[in-house]
Specification:
Layout (H helix, E strand, L loop, with lengths): L1 H34 L4 H9 L23 H14 L1 H20 L2 H14 L3 E4 L15 E7 L2 E11 L7 E7 L17 E7 L5 E4 L14 E11 L9 H4 L3 H29 L6 H29 L3 H30 L10 H11 L5 H12 L12
Parallel strand pairs: 1-4
Antiparallel strand pairs: 2-3, 3-7, 4-5, 6-7
Helix pairs in contact: 1-3, 3-4, 3-7, 4-7, 7-8, 7-9, 7-10, 8-9, 9-10, 9-11
The chain binds flavin-adenine dinucleotide.
Flavin-adenine dinucleotide binds next to helix 4, strand 1 and helix 10.
Length: 399
């Protein structure tokens, strides 16, 4: 009982500290967005505040949060708060914290000691990269993708990945590569992803280079999700995490899907807060249409919060099968709630809220782009297939 109260008090102090930091991060977000720069100072501040290792177990000096630690909601609430400051920062943070979850779940004791030490004591940053879309877009001549082959006591990775979040900021990346050929985990061609390896790559390796010319997107600019090239990069067996096929066979992507929803919701909450202050300052709160917009935003945001809590509770009570599908349901619903909230905000506030330095302009660009991370049509069809008892892909929603 006392331990429970202590833990609650510690978490509430942590959220207060995070909230103060997030106000600073919100002020920096515009600069990172304009220059498409990794939010390095934000990560430095999180490290200095002891908040940089949320999903590292407490036995290794972290906060012990997340689906393996058994305190999933606290992690997602942290993410939501960061996303309300800067959605790009939240994407980099998700990549970092999700990678640590994978190490905790699948890494050997030696790997945990080595890598968690770097995170907790040196502020090292992690990310996980699959991104090898197979179909070129019009005008695209380069084919993205990696090959991986066995050599000596390790693996050689050759080729390129895109959407490599935190490319210029992370120290380590978990490369999701497929022994069957290009495609990563998302577009794996091996049977059920059985050939997908997780290889921890130290990004300072001279065979790894970043091509920043590819990443010039409408939103999520500060995620620096560049094209990364691996020129026969050697990765020793000691840096392979888990067994081939573990990522898809054990359904790890499903633990990270609702994490996206936490980020979407954070963006929505920022738009909602902005709208409340804006319309009150302009004395528009008596307008019936504005009232309806505000009402719709309030309900949307609260609905998203309830769904996050519901899914987190399922993970933490060990109801994993239910948690997996509920996570996709939440991911689907929160995408729409968040997009609607931003739309309500813009309609209630008017054109000037889309003029910088208003953050709504960036929030709208970022959210519109970030929700493309998965295809909502396929998510919904997957939920339908599950309800119908049909075979379905809970990780990447393949048709
Ligand atoms: C901001 C951002 C950051 C990201 N960061 C990372 C990261 O750090 N690590 C990482 O691994 N990935 C990351 N991703 C990439 C993501 O994992 C996807 O690979 C990426 O969104 C694919 O780009 P695309 O939509 O152009 O690709 P495509 O694969 O071309 O998909 C385009 C559309 O076609 C649909 N489609 C694809 N195949 C079929 C088919 N056979 N039949 C019908 N429809 C199909 C897709 O569902 C999608 O809607 C990130 C994405 C974003 C937006």
């Amino acid at each position: 009982m006392t331990a429970h109260i202590d833990r609650e008090a510690a978490q509430s102090a942590m959220f207060e500290e995070l909230s103060d930091l997030a106000d600073t991060f919100a002020r920096r977000a515009d600069g990172y967005d304009r220059t498409a720069t990794f939010p390095a100072e934000d990560f430095d501040d999180l490290f200095a505040a002891g908040l940089h290792a949320p999903t590292v177990p407490r036995s290794h000096g972290g906060l012990g949060l997340g689906p393996v630690g058994g305190d999933t909601l606290a992690l997602w609430l942290m993410t939501k708060r960061l996303a309300s400051a800067d959605l790009s920062l939240a994407r980099c943070w998700e990549g970092h914290t999700n990678s640590l979850v994978l190490i905790d779940a699948l890494g050997s004791e030696a790997q945990k000691s080595r890598w968690f030490d770097g995170v907790v004591h040196r502020g090292e940053k992690w990310v996980a990269w699959s991104g090898e879309p197979r179909s070129p877009k019009p005008g695209e001549v380069r084919r993205f993708g990696t090959t991986v082959r066995r050599e000596g006591d390790g693996w050689v990775v050759d080729g390129t990945k895109v959407f490599a979040t935190s490319a210029t900021g992370a120290d380590w990346a978990i490369l999701l590569v497929d022994m069957a050929g290009p495609g990563g985990a998302r577009n794996s061609t091996s049977d059920g992803g059985a050939g997908v390896l997780m290889l921890a790559c130290e990004l300072a390796d001279p065979s790894v280079s970043v091509d920043s010319s590819w990443w010039d997107p409408i939103g999520m600019r500060a995620t620096v999700s560049h094209l990364v090239r691996f020129d026969n990069t050697f990765i020793p067996d000691s840096q392979r995490i888990g067994e081939a096929g573990d990522y898809l066979r054990q359904g790890w992507q499903t633990a990270f899907i609702p994490h996206y929803a936490a980020s979407f919701l954070g963006a929505a909450e920022a738009a909602y807060q902005y709208a409340l202050e804006y319309v009150m300052r302009q004395h528009k709160g008596t307008d019936a249409y504005v009232q309806q917009r505000v009402g719709a935003m309030a309900v949307a945001v609260e609905t998203g919060q309830l769904w996050l809590k519901h899914v987190a509770d399922l993970w933490d009570s060990g109801r994993t099968d239910e948690a997996r599908m509920a996570g996709s349901r939440a991911r689907h619903l929160v995408e729409h709630l968040a997009l609607d909230t931003v739309d309500h905000c813009v309609r209630a506030c008017g054109a000037r809220c889309l003029v910088r330095p208003s953050p709504v302009e960036r929030i709208q660009r970022d959210l519109m782009f970030y929700v493309r991370h998965d295809n909502d049509d396929h998510i919904l069809a997957t939920i339908g297939r599950n309800a119908l008892g049909e075979p379905h892909d809970q990780s990447f929603y393949k048709p």
